[in-house]
UniProtKB/TrEMBL annotation:
Protein name listed in UniProt: histidine kinase
Enzyme superclass (EC): transferase
UniProt source species: Coprococcus eutactus
Gene3D superfamilies registered for this protein in UniProt: 1.10.287.130, 6.10.340.10, Histidine kinase-like ATPase, C-terminal domain
Cellular component terms (Gene Ontology): plasma membrane
Compartment(s): Cell membrane
Keywords, alphabetical: ATP-binding, Cell membrane, Coiled coil, Kinase, Membrane, Nucleotide-binding, Phosphoprotein, Transferase, Transmembrane, Transmembrane helix, Two-component regulatory system
Domain Histidine kinase: 285-516
Membrane topology: Multi-pass membrane protein
Top-level taxonomic group: Bacteria
Length: 536
């Protein structure tokens, strides 16, 4: 379905407000044109009556009055012509020039009104339209047939019996109406123009935050939940902006929690797959490792049972093979149990403070027979004669160093060197433990003078059952598990370990925390500030 062309909110607001202003201006013009004449005529009647009442008040005083006082003292807002006739004393009071033609007309009306009592509307010289009639005065529209002009007249008697005529030409009222209409039309036009200009800016001001909200909503639809609506007004748009910001915050938190849950689920799935693969691999490797010694034990045991050989020397050889293979199987099972407990069992790390130099010397001394059998030359660095306290699980670290050292003895050349040394680095931020202050990192190196490990296999030597030289490993009874125990032990300590090639040999290393036992109470540093990232 084809999408219709979009009309912007600014355009809609502009058109709506402009139409509203236009309708209001047109209605104002129509109302003005319809009612302005009635309004002016009504206002004129009120002003003429005010003039009549003012004349009545003026002539109600007991004093002589002349035409000058009449012009000055009477309220005459409309500027009407005033004619007052004293029929007893035959005296005229007027604001009209006696030489003007309108004076004669006013005199004639006064005479007529005085002598006829206003009862004869059919006088041929006067044509009038009565607007209002009371006991004291009539309000009428009078047509002057001589001049063809029309007048608004208040004709009647004052309280003292004087005839009064107050006249205002209708033409002057009509001209005022026309002038007012022109002025109103001009004002309405200017107001409409200014209104349209204001509508443009108002629509922009109103549409801008709405467009901003729409832009933010579109970005939210694209899952950009870090976007915020900047709108500080305390109105419905501001409330909507706050709601959108809160929605963005909640969605971001929910999405983060969902991603974390998905990541954890994926990790669990990966771990399950890895465990399944490790289980399959484990069964495969164990089967492979046990197949040879079981076959040997079975073969030599059957030979003894069937009396394949009669001499005692051969029987003793058969028994030695069976015991040797059984010992290898026993060693393999114990290593597997240790590795399984490290990888899947309870956390076995029980850190204590011990002298790593003394541990290294003890392992080297206890391996003297193995050193002689491999015709190796062991060199210990001078710094190993000092005391260096470390903080770790002493039993596990002894296993780690023993595996490194025996591995070096087995793989070094006949008469080759095995060298052990250490290097330490102080931490920028020591950390406090219950046994002392961890001040630095100690790296223990074990070098064997022998063949290099192929570069593409360096990262595999710590994998269970992996053997670089399978024939040589089998020769000294290795199972490929020792370095896996090293990896699991160092991972449990959350410390680095690894291997690299050098000229004419291979170097294995592992890291430990150096600890200083003192009575001080330095500031506690969180454990995660230490350099304790594992690596292979």
């Amino acid at each position: 379905m084809k999408k219709s062309k979009r009309t912007s909110i600014r355009t809609k607001i502009t058109l709506s407000l402009a139409a509203t202003i236009l309708i209001m201006v047109v209605m104002s013009c129509a109302i003005t044109m319809i009612f302005i004449k009635k309004y002016f005529y009504h206002s004129m009647e009120q002003m003429l009556l005010d003039t009549y009442n003012s004349c009545n008040e003026l002539f109600g005083r007991d004093e002589d009055i002349d035409s000058k006082e009449l012009a000055n003292d009477v309220i005459n807002q409309s500027g009407a012509m005033i004619f007052i006739f004293d029929s007893v004393n035959m005296h005229v009071y007027t604001t009209v020039n006696e030489e003007a033609a309108v004076y004669n007309n006013l005199s004639f009306i006064a005479d007529y009104f005085n002598y006829s009592g206003g009862k004869n509307p059919d006088n041929p010289k006067i044509k009038r339209k009565q607007i209002e009639k009371t006991d004291k005065y009539d309000i009428q529209i009078t047509n002057d047939r001589n001049t063809g002009n029309s007048y608004y007249d208040v004709v009647g008697f004052l309280d003292n019996g004087f005839v009064v005529i107050i006249r205002k030409p209708i033409s002057s009222v009509d001209s005022t109406i026309v002038t007012s209409l022109k002025f109103f039309l001009l004002v309405f036009s200017v107001v409409a123009l200014l209104g349209f200009v204001m509508v443009y800016f108002i629509s922009n001001a109103v549409a801008k935050p709405i467009k901003n909200l729409a832009s933010v909503a579109n970005r939210m639809a694209q899952l950009d939940l870090d976007v915020k609506v900047d709108h500080a007004s305390n109105d419905e748009i501001g409330e909507l902006a706050d709601s959108m910001n809160e929605m963005s915050y909640q969605l971001r938190n929910t999405l983060t929690e969902l991603q974390q849950a998905n990541a954890k689920l994926q990790t669990d799935i990966d771990e399950k797959v890895q465990i399944d693969e490790m289980r399959k691999e484990f069964l495969s490797h164990v089967s492979h490792e046990l197949k040879t010694p079981i076959a040997l034990i079975q073969g030599y045991a059957e030979g003894l049972k069937d009396n394949v050989t009669e001499d005692d020397e051969s029987k003793e050889f058969y028994c030695d093979v069976i015991l040797d293979e059984a010992g290898k199987m026993n060693k393999l099972v114990r290593q597997l149990l240790d590795l399984n407990e490290l990888e899947f069992g309870v956390d076995r790390v029980h850190p204590v403070v011990f002298d790593i130099d003394a541990l290294i010397k003890n392992v080297v001394d206890s391996s003297s027979i193995l050193v002689e059998q491999n015709h190796a030359e062991v060199e210990l660095a001078d710094e190993l004669n000092d005391v260096c306290n470390v903080y770790a699980d002493e039993f596990m670290i002894e296993q780690v160093f023993t595996n490194y050292f025996t591995n070096a003895l087995h793989y070094c050349n006949d008469g080759g060197k095995v060298r052990v040394w250490t290097a330490n680095k102080d931490y920028d931020q020591p950390r406090r433990t219950e046994d002392g202050l961890v001040t630095g990192n100690l790296r223990v190196f074990v070098y064997d003078e022998g063949p290099n490990i192929p570069d593409d296999e360096l990262d595999k030597v710590f994998i269970k059952f992996y053997k670089v030289d399978k024939a040589r490993t089998r020769e000294y009874g290795g199972s490929g598990i020792g370095l896996s125990i090293v990896a699991a032990s160092m991972a449990a300590h959350n410390k680095n370990y690894g291997v690299y090639n050098v000229e004419n040999g291979v170097v294995f290393y592992f890291d430990l925390d150096i600890i200083q036992q003192d009575d001080g109470e330095p500031e506690m540093i969180p454990e995660n500030n230490a350099d304790n990232t594992s690596e292979q």
